[in-house]
Amino acid sequence: MVVLGAGFGGLELATTVTDELGDDVELTLIDRAEGFVFGFSKLDVMFGRHDPVQVLHRYDGMVNPGVRFVSAEITAIDPSARRVETSAGTYEADILVVALGADLDPAATPGLTEGGHEFYTVAGAFAAAEAIRDFPGGRVVVAVTSTPFKCPPAPSETALLTYEYLTSRGLPCDITLVMPLGTPIPPSPDASAAVLAAFAERGIKWIPERLVRGLDPERKVALLSDETELPYDLFLGVPAHRVPAVVAASGLAVDGWIPVDPLTLETSFPGVYAVGDVTSVGTPKAGVFAEGQAAVVAQRIIGHARTYDGRGVCYLEFGGDQVAKVDVTFVAGQRPVGSLIGPSTDLAADKTAFGADRIRRWFGREWSPSAAGTDG
Ligand SMILES: Cc1cc2nc3c(=O)[nH]c(=O)nc-3n(C[C@H](O)[C@H](O)[C@H](O)COP(=O)(O)OP(=O)(O)OC[C@H]3O[C@@H](n4cnc5c(N)ncnc54)[C@H](O)[C@@H]3O)c2cc1C
């Protein structure tokens, strides 16, 4: 069995299958990155809570003996033959799982790389951390540049955490959030109301149902999809998302992403599954959904008749050590539903435990991000 991509989905799948099947399965997990970084850790680095080195979970030294990890660039996928070409050779599989996530394309937004910061790539978030650290205060625009985009709550969290960071240092701030959605968390009216109330309390301006199409770095203005302009001193943007080029070239993608059976995560190619951000399964692009889908594929491979229920529980940062949980379910053909728990400081501890639990299961290591150097 070959798993492409060691992110949220690939790590969960590889761990569950090898834990359950032991020597009865030969599993190869392929990724080009140095290690795994949780999406939420990017925000932790941006706002100075953790150092970059603390949030990188290196693939070398993974302790799960059942997983054969290959550090390589995947250069071609033949889904009919279930054959994969990589910079480290060719791999063939009885079962192939594509968990390659979404690629990010900051250059697709004119002026973004010259005049602003994107905070969705690891490098971009770490660079944004320096810009935020050196920012003397002023107008901040947090904005989404195209749809779909990962973790729909992340821009709202970024606006709230920017407010906390600047005001706690006595710096002036005037924050505007530009989002394509009508409400911050569409499946949960309660979560949306709580986020909008937090914006109102802090004077954060909320501009819904719009995108930023480009920046004019000379004039320091963001150009919105409704033809209006927004001046900024610091721009924090969500870049365009694309299916990885190797997936586009494979014939697996249709209309941008890989279509799958929403109950089984099977693609139209026998023996080929896809999970997570690389699919168009109908859930938001987020780690908790990638993990849930991977868990279902793992159970099916192990031999249990599980189907995917579209449920995920996401954490939502309000700043000031206040974290909420949003429990959302997306079922094909039905209106998504969601409920809000918190925010509270107990849930901040819950979120830390969520991360530590994944690192223990996936990497066999303890992770306590406040203590530098405990991981890797
Ligand atoms: C700022 C931010 C905050 C977020 N917060 C949260 C949150 O709180 N909760 C949550 O659930 N989600 C959150 N997310 C979203 C979450 O990070 C992603 O949705 C999740 O990682 C998707 O999992 P995946 O397995 O589909 O893909 P990924 O985790 O992206 O993994 C894909 C893997 O494929 C590898 N890869 C891609 N192409 C190739 C290739 N050609 N060759 C070799 N390897 C390749 C990549 O290196 C990567 O390791 C956040 C994202 C961001 C940016």
Automatic annotation (TrEMBL):
Originating organism: Paractinoplanes bogorensis
Domain FAD/NAD(P)-binding: 2-285
InterPro entries linked to this entry: FAD/NAD-bd_sf, FAD/NAD-binding_dom, SQRD
Gene3D superfamilies: FAD/NAD(P)-binding domain
Pfam family, one: Pyr_redox_2
Protein name: NAD(P)/FAD-dependent oxidoreductase
